[in-house]
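Tyrosine-type recombinase/integrase (Rhodanobacter terrae), 291 aa
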Amino acid sequence: MSLPRQSISPLRQRMLEDMTLRKLSDKTQSAYVRAVRGFAGYLRRPPDTASAEDLRRYQLHLVETGVSPMSVNAAITGLKFFFEVTVERADALAKMSPVRVPHRLPVVLSREEVARLIECAGNDKYRAALSVAYGAGLRTSEVVGLKIGDIDSQRMVLRVDQGKGHRDRFAMLSPVLLQTLRVWWRTAHAQGKLLDGGWLFPGMNRVNPLTPRQLNRAIHAAAQAAGIDKRVSMHTLRHSFATHLLEQKVDIRVIQVLLGHKKLETTALYAQVATEILRQVISPLEGLPPG
């Protein structure tokens, strides 16, 4: 992670070095620095001088100003790293505690909605990217991180290099998805948009990959064009992939592997939104004798 040298204080430089030593991702490093910077802005003095009461008041400030539970917890996580690792003052966190995040079921599209969404994507590149997210169940970061060499048409798999948790895995590559990717490859190759061995979905400059923000803008535009009024994001396609597989009676442990989930409990959430399965269950009300 690089920042302009003139903007880095010795304290921040130490924190950056601590995060680099632990090989934290750039995204995590940015989040942790943002958390400490936000606290320093509230405190109006160097953050390493804060007391446990200062940190308690800051958490109260976040809650009272309407910051979401997930954002509050993200701030606590960043401050926890700073105080425990960088300044070695774990005692300062004594009065901070994570906020309970409300449990919400994921938004899932029907198969017809997924088909309309992909069809309404702006061009071949976005149609292919959305097809990968749904057809292989990949996260947005995993979609944009794909390279041409990650497509293994012999074994019919996609190689996911360093997905979430810094883990490599293989994702499924169906014949329909392979055909979609070939259509995109032919179009992009003819237009000189792809580098040999480069990104499968390059950005405006083919040296760089498409960004998650660009892909999210594309799916929001596609959802609007398709007339879908649900809260749609790229992760919605991953949720839909898992739910539809479960409705097809694919073993949940297989789905866990395909999604790259560490815990089966995470995958089991989809049993709550697999409506095809729910409709097959016979209510005990149906078995009551006539009354």
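The mean pLDDT is 89. The chain is about 50% helix and 5% strand. ok done for today
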